[in-house]
Amino acid sequence: MTTTSAASLATDQRSLGDPDVRYPLWPPLTSGCPKTSTDEVAYPVEVDYAYDRVPAGLFDGQPPRTGLDRWAPLLPPLAAPGLGEGGTPLVELSPGVFVKDESRNPTWSHKDRLNRCTVGAALGSGAPGVVVASSGNHGASAAAYAARAGLRCVVLTGTDLPPAMDAFLHAYGAVVLPVPTAARWPLTRRIAEHFGLQPVSNLTRTHTGHAFGPEGYKTVAYEIHADLGVPAAVFLPTGYGELLFGVWKGFSELRRLGVTERVPRLFACEPATGAPLAAALRQGLPAAHVAVGRTDAYGIDCPVNSYRGVLAVRGSGGRAVPLTDEQLRSAQAELARSGLWAELSAAAGLAGLRACADEDFDGPVVCVSTSTGFKDRGVGAHRSEPADPEWPAVRARLRAAGLAE
Amino acid sequence: MTTTSAASLATDQRSLGDPDVRYPLWPPLTSGCPKTSTDEVAYPVEVDYAYDRVPAGLFDGQPPRTGLDRWAPLLPPLAAPGLGEGGTPLVELSPGVFVKDESRNPTWSHKDRLNRCTVGAALGSGAPGVVVASSGNHGASAAAYAARAGLRCVVLTGTDLPPAMDAFLHAYGAVVLPVPTAARWPLTRRIAEHFGLQPVSNLTRTHTGHAFGPEGYKTVAYEIHADLGVPAAVFLPTGYGELLFGVWKGFSELRRLGVTERVPRLFACEPATGAPLAAALRQGLPAAHVAVGRTDAYGIDCPVNSYRGVLAVRGSGGRAVPLTDEQLRSAQAELARSGLWAELSAAAGLAGLRACADEDFDGPVVCVSTSTGFKDRGVGAHRSEPADPEWPAVRARLRAAGLAE
User: Fold this and answer.
1) Same domain, A178 and A225
2) Residue that is last in its domain, among A159, A175, A199
3) Of B183, B339, B380, the CB nearest to A380
4) How far apart are CA A178 and CA B388, in angstroms?
């Protein structure tokens, strides 16, 4: 259970609302920037580093398969033990189109990169555990990292938690509380305050989340760069935009450090039923609230965006791509035909690329697939009927399925 | 969809019943060695290589995260495209105890290493697809690699297929036929013959399986060696023993090539309800048939062993470790408390280590965890009741769960 990370070069926290507003590194801010946030918009904070002290060669060679520790200088202090997160492969779907398969993480989603950092924040703060509002990957990942660190985890889920996710959360020993949507965020805050737990999901009216979390996602950019250089574009499933921001910040750091000369265009792939980031960009706002319609992409189904997403899309010259469930299903099927079974939300990256047929990319593109098909709502609801085992019936069935005799 | 593997050094197939009995490399034998097999025991074949031509430096440095291609010289021809299989991390559970987490593979089990090779055999043989009898990881993995290669896949499952596995198999476009147990193997053979599909599961009375499959598992040994050197022992969940044999062969090759000086002791971890390998070893037989009792470890629940397992355990100075479901559940819980949610069968490796408290190991030990908790039968059967969202109720519940105020 020992970690052997190099020292973090993190220096302090900095407001995204005003980069001149700074806070000490500890305690991590879990409700955004108090000084610049208004009644309408909560501004997140990010972590700043002593960039002039980044070790030479940090970005040389292959990323190892041994967790985020390799990148420790540019991450918040990795106080919590790792589980071998990150180091996920790029699978070439067709020439120049790569899928970054984040289902290869310890809890089979990208969220492990974030929770390595947030649970480290809890441990570093002396909190006895974490509390998180999530019906999906974030909750399970927080539960796993908390268990690994010997901390407690309370997960406030919706009352429509998919049964497989229920088993998943309980496996790690989390306390699971399925409560109505309106109760989740007030309870998260109250539980955090009363029991001294570190909140690792959002507490504010427009999304801010945990200061340390999106830093973990920078490693997606570092890895893509190590495997491929700087691609022309990266397509990202986008809910509150923490992954999107992390990838943008990672590529920005590579440019800032002189490792690369440019950043890829980032495409934020949202369910069309809501698409708050698209609304914010269209209206020129830091954050927008939207009505959320019915979508099966429950992992990225958000009524409000974060200012982080605006910065990432604008800063990279990308755009938001709203996607229908039909487009998501089509991309999910395309991935499965290539041997990759992704959660519907996770297929948004590829769906976004397919929706941008009018764009011309001068180089390879990467679609991030965030998680596995096991986590979809419908999984487990259907069971195949027994087949007639007599040969004429089997033969007829296989012929009907297109197999040649 | 291009592969860039170095050339395979595979030369021919060799009988495990008599190493002087050889066959050409193509076609791959799918029913063991016809010359040495008897009515009682079917002997498997293995692949032999031009070991004197192994490139210098093949075992130097870190294994990459880009699939089995790195090891192409010592694998059967990798004719089928990969999905970034292998390269899984070792997670340190406690000082000197490592878990090789095979749930980080493309279909979240170790079977992907095998099916990269068997689907390559189908493609190299000009077969239009594969047929496999499996209710679990093997079927899904074969389906994924077949889809990736543009081939068809027929999966003969039991009629008690867990619903999540049903969704998993269908996702990759496999034809799924749930049939009674007694019908599965005759139908596998008949479908293979009639439709020209490559059978990638067993067809013989004692287990032989596909000649190319276990070769893929050698890479588990290569990776453990690259990360850790030669451990004192490796504990492996054992059904038909293909993984066990592959790991043994991999370490044996490293010794043969002068890369290492010894092999680790291999412990075959079987459900006590059947444990055919333990029976074969006890009785001094190449293979034993056993009555199979009730176990939830459906992935490794076998009525007969393969001679491969006997060779691996004897050759490495290891032993078979029969395990009760209670021991398996205890190991599954221990893994989950460390942040790793494993299938019950997958926890057999750690359960085996815990059952061998009397053994003294002079060096680190590795427990292989083969797959994820999502694949267990019970997953999806339970849904948490909604919690009372009022603060006094929530507070009481968290206090009852042991959280301090």
Assistant:
1) no
2) A199
3) B380
4) 8
Shortest Cα distance, chain A CAs vs residue B373, angstroms? 8
State whether A223 and A188 are in the same domain: no
Cβ-nearest to B336 among A95, A147, A152: A147
- Nearest CB to B148; choose among A83, A339, A402: A339
Angstroms from A273 CA to nearest CA on chain B: 25
Residue of B nearest to A158 (CA): B386
Q: Which residues of A touch B196 (CB under 8 A)?
A: 404
Residue B397 lies in a domain: no
Which residues in chain A have Cβ-Cβ distances shorter than 8 Å to B337? 147, 172-173
- Our count of domains for chain B comes to 3
CA A270 → CA A97, A149, A332, B387, distances in Å? Answer: 20, 33, 15, 31
What would the DSSP string read from start to end of B223-243? Answer: HHHHHHSS-SEEEEE-SSSHH
Nearest neighbour of A87 by CB, restricted to B65, B154, B227: B65
For B158, which residue in chain A has the nearest alpha carbon?
A386
Let me know whether A265 and A124 are in one domain. no
Q: What is the CATH number of the domain that holds A276?
A: 3.40.50.1100
Q: What is the pLDDT of residues A128-170, one digit of tens each?
A: 999 999 988 999 999 999 999 999 999 999 998 887 888 899 9
Per the CB < 8 Å rule, is B179 touching A389?
A: yes
Which stretch of DSSP H or E encloses residue A48?
A: strand A45-49
> Is the domain of B217 the same as that of B338?
yes
Which amino acid belongs to residue A398?
L
Are residue A311 and residue A361 in the same domain, yes or no?
yes
Q: Is the CB of residue B124 less than 8 Å from the CB of residue B200?
A: no
Q: A164 and A221 share a domain?
A: no
Which residue of chain B comes nearest to A405, CA vs CA? B195
A280 CA: distance to closest CA in chain B (Å): 32
How far, rounded to the nearest angstrom, does the alpha carbon of residue A29 sit from its chain's CA centroid? Answer: 19
- Tell me, yes or no, whether A105 lies in a domain: no
Record: contact A101-B84, CB cut-off 8 A: yes
Q: How far is CA A244 from CA A67, A132, A285, A310, in A?
A: 20, 20, 18, 10
Instruction: Note whether residue B242 is domain-resident.
Output: yes
Nearest Cα neighbor of A91 from B219, B386, B144, B143 is B144
Is the domain of B181 the same as that of B305?
A: no
Same domain, B15 and B156: no
Shortest alpha-carbon distance between residue B173 and chain A (Å): 7
- Decide if A29 is inside a domain: no
Tokens at residue B250, please? 């991999």
Amino acid at B67: G
Chain A residues with beta carbon closer than 8 angstroms to that of B164? 164, 374, 379-380
- Domain range enclosing B335: 213-375
Give the tens place of pLDDT for each residue, B15-46. Answer: 999 999 999 999 999 999 999 999 999 999 99
| Distance of alpha carbon B196 from alpha carbon B150, whole angstroms | 15
Percentages (nearest 5) of helix, strand, coil residues in chain B: 40, 20, 45
CB contact under 8 A, A65 and B89: yes
Query: Residues of chain A with pLDDT > 70: what percent?
Result: 98
Which pLDDT score, from 0 to 100, does residue B5 have?
64
Over the stretch A46-84, which tens digit does the pLDDT of each residue have? Answer: 999 999 999 999 999 877 667 899 999 999 999 999 999
